[in-house]
Batch of 3 targets.
Target 1
Amino acid sequence: MCIRKLFRYAANYQNRSERRVMITVNNLGMQFGGQWLFQRVDLQFLGGNCYGIIGANGAGKSTFLRILCGELDCTTGSITIAPNVRMSVLKQNQNAYDTYSVMDTVIMGNQHLYDVMKEKDAIYEKPDFTDEDGMRASELEVEFAEMGGWEAESDASRILQGLGVPTENHYDLMADTDPRLKVKVLLAQALFGNPDIVMLDEPTNNLDIESINWLEDFLLDFPGMVIAVSHDRHFLNTVCTHIVDIDYGKIKMYVGNYDFWYESSQMVQAMLRNKNKRNQEKIEELQLFIQRFAANKSKSKQATARRRLLDKLTVEEMPASTRRYPFVGFQPERELGKDILTVKDVSVTMDGVKLLDQVYFSVGRTDKIAFVGENELAQTALFQVLMGELEPDEGSIKWGVSTARSYLPKDNAAFFDGNQEELVDWLRQYSAKKDDVYLRGFLGRMLFSGEDAFKPVNVLSGGERVRCMLSKMMLSGANVVLLDQPTNHLDMESIQAVNKGLIAFPGVVLLASHDHEMLSSVCNRVIAFQPDGTIVDRYGTYDEYLAWVEQQKGR
């Protein structure tokens, strides 16, 4: 977290004990198909705080959020929300507002304000304006002004621009709006109008990094309460004052951001393991003494005393966490030589749009490069050129003879759709070792255990497909890895595993991602794709690049 955000985080965190309770959760339980998702949950959410909800896939994060905002009834217990509180929720249905303009959709984030505005406008448009209409319009004008109605469009426009929606699109119909912008419009709707509580389910999904940074800044300054489900570690670290962890069929709240929760939880687990180990060693020591001296009269009293002590000793069963971490590790079969890659004056145009314009750069043997920028099509086009899947309009690329490449594409459908092969057979074609024992052991480390190894690959989920592609890459022995948005569809545990694997990898990395934490911890160079198809090439960490961008804006 940058220093400026750190100070703002600390300022917003102060005096939380003085903030009133906004939501009370009492003895909450949720059951699906006879199985408890979670139960006996007692929590209080205070105004002014930001709560990040975390947990493994399937643990119930989105379900819990839907219960809190009243979209879903719980099996047991109750949710109490403070009176006179306005709650705003990030909508998931992108087509729900297709008949409205972008501006109207955002203002509908405060539905009462929108209704007052429309009723007022309808009265003024009446051809037979009566005295009663005049009185009603006067009442509406007062209410409209009190709710900040005259600033509504400018406020909505400010949020839209911050999220990267151009001003020329603010009065377009939602039906005619690019789906990538629709996501931002619905987020702007949730943030509009100073609600008391904002509920956000994966708010950073499909956002470019500049929009994520703007959202973090907005939430740091936001005076209300935020509850957000997210797998974005940097986002959770930047904005959250509390972490709400769903695991072991329980929901617990912890003070601090994600990193504080993670380090604390790992420490507790280690302490518990050590305690159990010491207890087990003591039990074995006492059992051995009892066996040796139980029949010895001179030692019988000591043996009896130790048997009583043994009865009191128990090995605490480690709770079975729902979190599962795959193993991701890339081991190159050969070292890289001096020459790695030269990209010379490459240009690519698609559908009349120039994605790459005279792109030129070379790659060194120690480079781990972050590909960033709003134009993801340009990033994907360059990956395809580098892998020989796309012929550039002009220019050339040259790989060094010592390089062996492996690629994780953004769209992996061609590897799975229509393919009814069992997973173990699908992986066999990419492995030098063909025996089932090796392949099933490898799949087990990637969380495909037991019968999962025999699932047809065309029924795999998005996250399972990405884990398969990572398995394929690991088996390749490549010394250069190219990854286009590898965190798409992955849960936080898998993202952390990929992150660690790329940090430890001794070869060259070319990485396009929205994951701030991954870019910051892995990469030592940034290539930023510009709207006109050119690039900006900067050596240094991703955070250093962002600081440089801010410095350029200030000039």
Target 2
Amino acid sequence: MKRILLPILALAIVSIAGCQRKKTTMDTSNPFFTEYSTPFKVPPFDKIDTSHYLPAFIEGIKQHDKEIAVITENTSLPDFENTILAFDKSGKLLNRVSYVFYNLNGAHTSDQMQEIARKISPLMSKHQDDISMNPKLFERIKAVYENRLNAGLDEQQIRVVEKYFKDFERDGANLPADKQEELRKINEELAMFQVKFGENQLAEINKNFKLVIDNEGELAGLPESVISAAAEAANTTGDKGKWVFTLAKPSLIPFLQYAQNRELREKLYQGYFMRGNNDNANDNKQIVKDMVRLRAEKASLLGFDNFAAYVIDENMAKTPENVDKFLSELFNSALPVTKSDLAEMQKIADAEGGNFKLQSWDWWFYAEKLRKQKYDLDENELRPYLKLENVRDGMFQVAQKLYGITFEKITNLPVYQKDVETFEVKEADGSHLGILYMDYFPRSEKSGGAWCTGFESAGWENGKKVDPIVSIVCNFTPPSGNTPALLSWDETTTLFHEFGHALHGLFVEGKYTRTAGNVPQDYVELPSQIMENWAGEPRVLRMYAKHYETGEVIPEVLIEKLLNSSHFNQGFTTVEYIAASILDLDYHKLKAPAKLDDLIAFETEAMNKIGLIPEILPRYRTTYFSHIFDGGYAAGYYVYLWAAVLDSDAFDYFKQSGDIFNPLLAASFRKHCLAENGNDEGMVQYKKFRGQDPSLIPLLKKRGLN
């Protein structure tokens, strides 16, 4: 999952009402109030205390207000320099504290951090709207926009002007005062609900459910490494001498894959798919109802039929109808494959005397049996060759072969948590490119999933290049006892995926904050997903897949099994993903007033409508669908699959060239699709690399759906 940090104007702000702005004075002991003196100007995490955030946000807003006032009170005629560029470079302090706070509130939160989020949210929501609906500021931006073609501006300056003008229109600048006031209230309420949804989700994952096993016989089927990890988890939860399994993926998925006790598989999986739907203090149903209603009202205010139309208007897909058609075609290709797999799994269960119809909590268990039967591959055969450090280093080697860059581990940088690693990234000529933070393992104070953000974006300031500081956050299988962190194949490809986002952040070029690296949402996953393709290439596997004890390179027979099974379960993966995408769109295609009585009934009807089989649930059910209710992907969860068409087509281009490390193609991809991708619309930039429109065929072939 990619979480994107945008300029202040476009920040996805979270908000809870009820905090009044307080006067504050500059405190030189507050690290945010001075330039960082750390190496590479990384945040001084060792000096930042929770008490620093609120004063820094308040002062940041104050300074940003002053910068906006300088623009609006300028008596000179509006032009690119005194209006657009001045706005583009404003909000430095606010950006500085936002980068740190919002990243750490996801990766290393606490009760104090969550309380701060509730306090600063109404301030940030109001500040955002004060800018978006500032009539004097919009008047000046509009004047520059209307004269843009006659002002001697270059192509990129014109693009920046046009982007900002459209931003302001989409944020309500053209609305009458009474409608702007409505929009302000909607934005504040939405931000409030977004925070609460995320807090509930975190509590449901890490605090409100655990499966405690005290009978060793109930561990039958589980690999020793999984049992050992569960014993260690029990030590931390106060259940010493027992085994604890949680809803975190490194604990959940192996249990579903291997535990022979069907009742316990059901119990754990129900704990997972009932998150946010337990009628307790963390229930998300009413929050979702309110968010869907408010988003529909917002879209209506801004002149759109529904919220999906509002969001997708900015994307490559352009309309919800185009997305519907795209998803429908793929769903119809994937569903028969899924049903065929299900029939084979049912035969296995019947042959074992199961005497039951497979349910959703059975899928992983019998899929693993089917994989073993069809391909003689047990995923646990791979783990010893997927030591985290080896996978990481192999990933770095791929980037070096493609782009010439190198990664040097450094230990003198402050970090926010002891397990976080830091690397200096250098160009082929040895010059500094950026810094990469890597945070691998689950913690109770960390949100679930994996994502990439940053503590500083690449750009320009006072004529000098600003080097990026990028961060990858994951929830991978941790070390256990004397055994190092051994990744699953899914975790391996996830690391490559997030690394692709990191490369995007490291390579971005552009003088203007609004356009540098700023791409349509359905383009965002291209840089990440294309990297997954290299992970499974035999040539690459031989580079990093080495036995953690012996150093033996992964045997050719195991590589062959992995390749032969590459199509396995792709029907399931595609169907559960599309189901969630359609659920997302169905909520956001509702027109105002969008009143929902029964969310679960709505979800069931949406899935019945497309013919989703009961043995599969959508990848994310409504009440824990963080991507769309607190992760910035509302009406946009489809984008991973849209980008999958692009990444499959792009990697196929490398394969067709006869060299997966083709230096000319790598240089072109870096230039057009990573460094300069904000220079023009997404498809334009892609076609500069590819030379033609992307084809759906490589994706269908890769997933075995053709």
Target 3
Amino acid sequence: MSQTPRMAPPLLLLTDISVILGSAPLLERATLSVGAGDRLCLVGRNGSGKSTLLKIASGEVAHDAGTRFFQPGATMRYLPQEPDLSAFANVMEYVLAGLGPHDDEYRVRYLLGELGLSGDEKPAHLSGGEARRAALARTLAPAPDLLLLDEPTNHLDLPAIEWLEGELKSLSSGMVLISHDRRFLENLSRSMVWLDRGQTKRLDKSFAHFESWRDEVLEQEEQEFHKLGRKIAREEDWLRYGVTARRKRNVKRLAGLHSLRAERRNFTHKLGLTKMASLDAATSGKIVVDADGISKNFDKPIVNNLTFRVLRGDRLGIVGPNGAGKSTLLKLILGQLAPDSGTVKLGTALEVVTLDQQRADLNPNTSLADTLTGGNSDQVVVGGQARHVIGYMKDFLFKPEQARTPVGTLSGGERGRLLLALALTKPSNLLVLDEPTNDLDLETLDLLQEMLGDYPGTVIVVSHDRDFLDRVCTSVLMSEGHGRWLEYAGGYSDMLAQRGEGVTAAKVEKIEKKTAPKPAQAPEAAPAKAKISFKEQHELKQLNEDIAKMQAQMAKLEEVLATPALYTKDQKKFIAATASLAELHAKLKKSEERWLDLEMLKEG
């Protein structure tokens, strides 16, 4: 599919990048071009080589073939998936080490405060989420020309994700994002690069257009395969081309989910919480969880006088910032923890299966097939029916040759898929999923959504994935702070519309209390001038002329750089033009900042 030629000069250009792992290519003539102000999202299945391509872009990893160009004089910062803080005494030292000679330390303090960190934290004691926040502060503090962000929302809660979205939107930096968070991609992307079987395909539209475009590409490719009379391997056909059918089925399921939400709203409206609590025993088989006025305190209120009910077939999402008490609430719901006051009654004949977000239930030395079958046969029983383990594995996007692969060698996303497959082999009528979307790629998220749509029982899910909550949940139980929880009909977007804001209120209160500077520490304001001086008036006039000249020069350079195939025909001219453009860009930025200062002084 042809795309409109790009006109902006690149900050970063990767051309025909190839990487060989063993005897098989991981990347094969992959291309990546990022210009100033671009917001480019790099997507692809787990293991497709996205992180490797980003490391090559950052200069951290060498490639076997191809060329890498980065604009001279430009600045770049790279956020890895697993930041290493071990060489630093505390978070503040780690973040300050990422600054350049002219960067502002005040921005470091601002970012740490917004991310809920003081800077005094010791690296050895950081959780995964805290380490990710520290790495984000280090990456964003210099406000570089180019940001390379590998799964920036990993281990973050909803307040941090929503804050990060706003912060990235406010930056003029070019960006390359790797993420499987659909809502995050929808809100930030301007262009998409799809990495598939080692090669890249580009769409200069946002993520909202990506999946339908990808479906078209796959359908065209499948037709071409059949026209050529070539045989497509069954497993490749399912893994690759089945994504289109799964996505279309999930789109249809959303209509059914809206009907369920409407029924629940009407049911709740008719009965009310107090009347729901008094339903007679004849209908008790429909009740899965009946919580009446429960409270729990650990130095602070976690749950305060909460009454709610989960009915058979409900999909309840539990939402709130880290530290709100989501895990404690789950334990109260399941009877693993007794409330300080109030009662929790569980429905009759419940069979509960819990998905552990830490993947702790998997033995790293056991093969994938033996994990699913228990090692006693090649059959697995699902829904009372025996199936061959290879066929069941393929349902979860595993290839037949992976059957004897030790679990310990699987990627995080593959372990997530395996845990889902294992959970659904156990008889259950209540699924409790704690962060089930961690490490899952877009195709696996579609698969999970499809399976939950088919699941006949009840689902309780804790998640920070807004799109997933919208696609799955019939209601959302939201932490309002200070132990207060409210239930909203519908998914995350419905909660947002009813509440008027996201999950930021509790976080803002915490950060302001923790990081607001003391009045004595604030720098004293300079005395106001009565009016702008004659010398400053002359400087302002000169700045207007200089800015206009620089803009004209930059426009000419951009015309030169927009010449088709300039980089391949005259590499020296291309490099000289990009260096001049970078220098002009820096001068223009400095001049515009001074112009703004003088204009404000003039108005004051």
